[in-house]
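Progress against Task 2.4 (sequence-to-structure conversion) is shown through the following example record, which the project officer requested during the mid-term review.
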Amino acid sequence: PPSMIVSGGHICVVVLVLRVLLTLTSWATYALYAYHLPHTAELLASVAVPLLHSNVMLLKASSTGARLARFPSCRLLCGRCSAVVPHRPSAAPLGSSALLKGVAAPVSAFAPINRGMAGSATVPKAAAVQEVDTADVFTTNPLLADVVFPLYDQVKPEHVVPGMRALLAQLNKDIDALEASVTPSWQGLVEPLERLTDRHQRTWGIVSHLKGVQDSDALRAAVEEVQPENVALGLRLAQSQPLYAAFKALKDGPVWETLNEAQRRVVDIELRDFVLGGVGLEGEAKERFNAIQQQLAQLSTKFSNNVLDATKAFKKLVTDAAELEGLPATALGLAAQQARAAGHDKSTAEVGPWLLTLDFPSYYPVMTHAKNRALREEMYRAYITRASAGDLDNTPI
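Structure tokens generated for the chain above:
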């Protein structure tokens, strides 16, 4: 249990082990889908993955391990968390869902509330969140459902904009209340701030996951529409003078002596991130900082979308069974299924034709089992050079 862990190093190791298990379980889930074992895959997806993630979150939120374990190597392993930079950044992580699809996750989709790192918006506070009627949204929108497991099967693109706007409006009110009543103590500052940001992360995490594994034009449009309002909340937190003053008072006051090592580390990181987030900037310098953050968010989203589109664009139709020697029957079945979806109605796993793509369930069996070295090389080169030429070229970005 977290109470038994007495050092930051131990916490980091435990969190890393849990994240490794989480990632391996996620990969196993997709492998089971690829090998046509959906019931087992759904069991893993609905029980094991959320359970492992919950243990990570509980450990990080414990009084001993409170967020001490937020270090870059962890961020490579879990697509539901932030990115490969410290403490609520908005740079896109290469999370498990993105890895398994063979694409990079869009920054806007994975950006949690941050303290002014990439993703901050130039939207003024007064215009950050559009006025919305939230009376029914929280009870009818599945994106905002207060449940243990997200309702992924019910959340649609049309739920994103009204759901996020209602949430952002509520969170801005919560920030108003916190700034007005904040006290320089763990219970009066850190805990309510963590609850506030966690609510945002959980909701936006649903959108980010769907964006990574079930991308569509409608979902992209919804994400792009709400993104300026979404990141404006992070900008507001990053540059909140009342919260920054409270954290400084917490470190400089008598309460500091009552905090344990992990809690002190949290406070130090918060103070650092306020400074990096532009809390000390004024006037033209602040405007330029915010403009740069907005541009970075847009470029990151464009970069990730190009990778995703390039992944979707690659298709290789194989008509000679000899070229696929070594592939298991399940991989041939998936390739035939993809061929039928592309218009080859008579395709079967036994006689083909077979359609290969760069999506992980298609790509991985080829790289693992195919005896055709030329085919493996073609697939590998296509995979590592995605979005490097033509209209989807990421080089300028």
